[in-house]
Fold these 4 entries.
Entry 1:
Amino acid sequence: MKYLLETHDLATACGLVMNRHLNAMLAREAGTRDGRDIEQLHMMRVALRKLRAALLVFPGAINKPEREALESELSWLGDALGDVRDLDVFLDRMALTRSELDSDSAGNLREVDRDIERRRSAKRDAMLTALNDARYTGFVAVLRRRIEKLVLV
């Protein structure tokens, strides 16, 4: 495994950072698809955001048109993951709020919970559609090839 060193040139440093975060993202994919542990989705999204940040930190490592194309795909995937994650966080906060209410007031939130659960289910279906799409697998392949060129693996 290669580590980021101050002797690495810009392209190598960018490639190593992006490789680390791509691997982290992919390591959380199965758990995100499974959906039993919402932290898997959270960690996949964090890795994705770090990939986006790497493009900003190392702007000279990748030519502008290719960088913009990668940013666009990362944004698309981030939207698909983020829609579900935002509702997960909302549901967690609603559960905490409900636990602090009397039973009548907590009961009044049940319809809100059902509505949010329906919306989350639809967003989760959309996220899974995105993860199953050729656009996603193509993006991962393009990003992997770009990283290999940067690092010269």
Entry 2:
Amino acid sequence: MKIRIFRIIILLFIVVTAFYLNGGLSRLLKSPTVQAFGDLIVDFHIVGPIFNLTNIKPGDSETRLIDVTNDGSVSRIIAVRGTRTGGIGLDPKIETVLNVTIKDGSTTLYGPKSMTDFFTDSLTPDGIPLNTIDAGGHKTYNFLVEFPTSANN
């Protein structure tokens, strides 16, 4: 009986130690989709690339909402940069037909422009400026990628 209790205590100690060394309770409570950029808290609502388009065909579209909160004491300029994570070659044709639109509510801040233009426009160190969020403010941006029905397969 004493050996069984001793084994349980050792096993419990190992589990607690492994849990602590892997971030403990704070890691469990932290959302993997939220990142901080200085005073800006950004919730992408998804882990990994914002868009991962597979089997997309003419007429399809995908929308992603991104929440940005300014936890600072001064207004912050919000900008976006795109990073190409897939595709084959230097000029994959799908990027030339997909359209990107970014909105703040019903106000269009960017686009509709081709995905190629989006990547090119966002190459600058500051990215594509969207707008400014006042101190303590919050905005939800709507990112839309469309495959126009007028495009050929």
Entry 3:
Amino acid sequence: MSICYRIPCPSSITALGRYGKPSGRKDSAGEIRTMIVAIPTAGKDLDSPIDNRFGRAVGFIIYDMNTGEYKHQVNNLDELALEGAGIQAARNLVRAGISAVITGHCGPRAFHIFSSAGVEIYSGIKGPASAAVRRLAQGSLTPVQAPDVEEHW
């Protein structure tokens, strides 16, 4: 079940995005498309801490960098999957249309799914989801180029 929330945006925010910066990537036609970010969390709102284990997170905050809207998506794989929870969660998020993921850690299988789909991966991030979103908008997060943990850590 998903619940949508909207964060009030100050009137000074431009159409470029919540923090006044372009909030997406250019598509093949050169148009900026909205950046949708998935963040594995231990709770259901932006104050929730980022979960270190991507595939075993309680759920994901799906955050629209342009509008400031977000929803919580329950991760049904956290307890049910004996193995492969990360790759299954990554596939589900890619199908949902995300363009970036901010996570505590990203293993090799999930990393492969995301990078093959053109999803930017920001790994090794700690703290509340709201702080990570703010850092991404400010340009202080750098996408990783390789997984940061081994399989089944």
Entry 4:
Amino acid sequence: MSTEPGHRSALLDWGSTKIRRVVKSTLAAEACGCSTGYDRAVYIRAIITEMMGFTAPTWEERVMRIPQVSLVDARSLRDHLHKTGSMPTEKRVGLDLADVREWLDRGDKLFWIPTGYMLVDPFTKHFPDTPILDDYLINYRYNFADQYYTLER
């Protein structure tokens, strides 16, 4: 996915699952979901680099040749990921955040956008009107950057 308006994109993976552990806060739930999503994205990127014949000294360097843009609708998650030295009181949450932060430090991007602009929210929640999803399904374009809600690192 590109942050430039007008670029085409393809949704390669999507999932809606229950968290498999008890969490004590919304931040914990969001961090767990974000870490799981990142694991899936890294796996897909690794497969794509293998299919395309990319070479690099390490698999991490090979994976970084495929740009990663992540979107979250939890501002507290974005804030914790972009704050240096911030550690939540729940240690497991800290590990989830560190997992994602490692990829951000390597050059991946993570943006906050309002819930209404999340592409797949209509798959699990009722929305009376879904112009963002409709446009994506027709034109394969998801121009979240046009909204200027993105807060970069």
